[in-house]
Design a protein that fits this description.
- With about 270 residues, this protein is an alpha/beta fold.
- It has a single domain, classed as NAD(P)-binding Rossmann-like Domain (Rossmann fold, 3-Layer(aba) Sandwich), CATH 3.40.50.
- It is built from eight helices and seven strands, in the order βαβαβαβαβαβαααβ.
- Strands 3-2-1-4-5-6-7 form a seven-stranded parallel sheet, sandwiched between helices.
- Helix 1 packs across helix 8 and helix 3 runs parallel beside helix 4.
- The protein is globular, with a radius of gyration of 18 Å.
- This is Carbonyl reductase (NADPH).
- GO terms for molecular function: carbonyl reductase (NADPH) activity.
- Keywords: Oxidoreductase.
- It is an enzyme of class 1 (oxidoreductase).
């Protein structure tokens, strides 16, 4: 076979032997990402604020198709905005699994809706602290603990709200725009050993996004060319690809996973 046509690896999307940290992973998109990485062979640390909820999430992971081996799932409870928690999550991941190859910055908050002129500035600071500063903090720690010497892959969970104005979640959208910019800056700074990308979902059917679609799911979905809202697994599959060797020449990108919404002129 011509070398140019040969596969890059025998199993380029296999993550066996690698370790991942997924923040904000007790439910929804984060939990689906953890399940995807686990199914691909990785060991996974999941974080969230509540220990009991995290324990339930771990049970779901271990009961899934790739589950059963409790040694491959670690839970670390805490707030992503807390520097001490971030340090604990990264340190325990590296100590438990002996490495940290994949970081998925999924933790995010949106406590306020509506126009920026009415926004409480303390709430805006909190949004940026969790959605942007924490992602950078986690990346710095992962870099120091493992990736600087061994390489790795980082994926940040952005949003179509960071690419287009929505009129409803303005502060959240501004934080996701900052996260998209942060992704590009980190990709430029950390190559060639570390790849950094982002994914930008539209409305995905999770508890976090309920206020955006529960009033009229069919009507909201009608503006999408694919005529449905996203499912957590739609985002998880993309993240699994981006952290795998199949995406070895992809860095600095923000990849839409939006059912064609922005292509059709939608705003999310």
């Amino acid at each position: 076979m011509d070398e140019a046509l040969a596969p890059a690896a025998t199993t380029p999307q296999d993550l066996t032997g690698r370790a991942a940290l997924v923040t904000g992973a007790s439910r929804g998109i984060g939990l689906a990402i953890a399940a995807e990485l686990l199914a691909r062979g990785a060991s996974v640390t999941i974080t969230a604020r509540k220990e009991a909820v995290l324990a339930e999430a771990a049970e779901q992971l271990l009961g899934g198709p790739a589950g059963g081996d409790a040694s491959r799932v670690l839970t670390v409870a805490g707030n992503a905005g807390d520097a001490a928690h971030r340090e604990e999550a990264v340190t325990r991941t590296a100590d438990t699994f002996g490495r940290l190859d994949v970081l998925v910055n999924n933790a995010g908050i949106n406590p306020i809706y509506g126009p920026l002129m009415d926004a409480d500035l303390d709430a805006v600071r909190k949004i940026f602290d969790v959605n942007v500063v924490a992602a950078l903090g986690y990346t710095q720690l992962a870099h120091k603990a493992w990736m600087a010497e061994h390489g790795g892959a980082v994926v940040n969970l952005a949003s179509v709200g960071g690419l287009r104005s929505t009129g409803a979640i303005a502060a959240y959208g501004a934080s996701k725009a900052a996260l998209i910019r942060l992704t590009a800056e980190l990709a430029a700074e950390l190559g060639p050993g570390i790849r950094v990308n982002a994914v930008a979902p539209a409305v995905v059917k999770t508890r976090f996004a309920t206020a955006l679609y529960a009033h009229d799911e069919e009507g909201v979905a009608s503006s999408y060319p694919l005529k449905r809202l996203g499912e957590p697994r739609d985002v998880a599959a993309l993240v699994g690809f981006l952290v795998s060797d199949s995406a070895a020449w992809i860095s600095g990108e923000t990849v839409l996973v939006d059912g064609g919404l922005l292509a059709a002129g939608g705003t999310g």
